[in-house]
Design brief:
The protein has helices at about 10-15, 20-35, 75-80, 100, 120-125, 130-135, 140-150, 160-170, 190-200, 200-215, 230-245, 265-275, 305-315, 315-320, 355-360, 395-400, 420-435, 440-455, 460-480, 480-485, 490-495; strands at about 5, 35-40, 55-60, 60-65, 90-95, 175-180, 220-225, 250-255, 300, 325, 330, 330-340, 345-350, 370-375, 385, 410-415. The chain is of the alpha/beta class. The protein has 4 domains: about 5-95, Glutaredoxin; about 120-320, NADH-ubiquinone oxidoreductase 51kDa subunit (Rossmann fold), CATH 3.40.50; about 325-415, Roll (Ubiquitin-like (UB roll)), CATH 3.10.20; about 420-500, NADH-ubiquinone oxidoreductase 51kDa subunit, iron-sulphur binding domain (de novo design (two linked rop proteins)). A hairpin with a 6-residue loop joins strand 14 (about 370-375) and strand 15 (about 385). The longest helix is centred in the last third of the chain and has 18 residues, at about 440-455.
Length: about 500
Amino acid sequence: MSPVRVYVPRDSAALAVGADEVAAAFERECARRGIAIDLVRNGSRGLFWLEPLVEVQTAQGRVGYGPVAAAEVSALLDAGCLQGGAHALALGPVDEIPYLARQERLTFARMGVTDPLSLADYAAHGGWAGLERALEIGPAATLQEVLDSGLRGRGGAAFPAGIKWRTVAQAAGPRKYVVCNADEGDSGTFSDRMTMEGDPYMLIEGLAIAGLAVGAQKAFVYIRSEYPHAFATMAEALRRATAAGRIGGSFTIDLRRAAGSYVCGEETAMLESIEGRRGVVRAKPPLPALQGLFGAPTVINNVISLASVPLILARGAAFYRDFGMGRSRGTLPFQLAGNVARGGLVEKAFGLTLRELLYDFGGGSRSGRPIKAVQVGGPLGAYVPESRWDEPLDYEAYAAFGAVLGHGGIVVHDDRADMARLARYAMEFCALESCGKCTPCRIGSTRGVEVIDRLVAGRDAARQERLLRDLCSTMVDGSLCAMGGMTPYPVLSALDHYPADFGIAPAVPKAA
């Protein structure tokens, strides 16, 4: 009789709530009972409120139990969990859990399904098909597939990936580079980390396709220093892929540990850091696509952008383009965090609404209180009031009312949130994390904290509000990068939609 396969995640979120202890308990208890199991440390499915989520391979498919504590393993085995037996923690077939079943998992199709470091698992679930097709059709056709897919950068700016690649491909120079920005510093975001920990070969394959398409000889992956598990998994995956001949030769990939600075998530500050200097934003032009890393033409994309490419090449541009709406094609891994009952990753095509994410997937607030505000797009994203929760999640639709989708991070706040304090935090965060190169960001954020303090204290509130709005306008228009240019988004959205929290009266609508 072959051993029963048991899956216990190795993802950081699962480790934080005891996944290692659960895995050890299964091994220990099964050994004591003389039961043979094949324990697989998979990635997370992204259902974080159920972690550690244990899955058992049965004749009926993979059956889930969760959240499982090490102390509950013995009772689970007594209940026949290795045969999919009934238990209070039983979730039934994992693929049928509504949170998962309602998603469109394209990029995250393998997430939680495979052993992240198994080359055999990766190949058996469609891995390398995109790279093999790229090698077959050549650089020009590969580049055209990415252009035709409508893929836009998933790091926040949403610039068309194919146009960036084409610019690098057409640029003159003896050397070209691909740089993956994996410095995922936005609050409430974790899709990059999940990819590197749960499906690292997908990113490696995307890098190899990008290198082929633009004629680059080398790639760098700049990984957030606070992600030790992601770095270790990527390093081991890179070693195995190289040993197996999947990459190497004329194209190599190096890993770089990030400098621990939020502003190094800005592409030019990241290049400075990789080159061994302090992470300070560069003035543009020249654009990195023409003069980037070490002065050479450079493709810079984030993890999800590059991880989306293998599927596009494997299934074709039309397949990917059929998902989404308008100019927002494909899917985005939305990340639900904050005061939400069911936090986790939801990969859906562009066009669903925030209300659907908050309630159909997230289950409302974790506290059970009404949701007051939702910050979309990271710590520099706008606070979206309920009046906008039925807008489609689409780059252009959100830009139309002064918001951004960014990296897909969504942080939920209930009715106890003090929006003035959150606005102040945005300015304070900018002051702490600014590289200091430009005056609007460096000085504007410091003055912003002071003005908000005076406004909340009621010291000539009307004047302070005007001053705050003028200051925000200067930061938006005058900052060198998005650090200073976007800090006003959460401040102004809080001021516009929650004026009472600042102690000011709401604006009176003008007569028609």
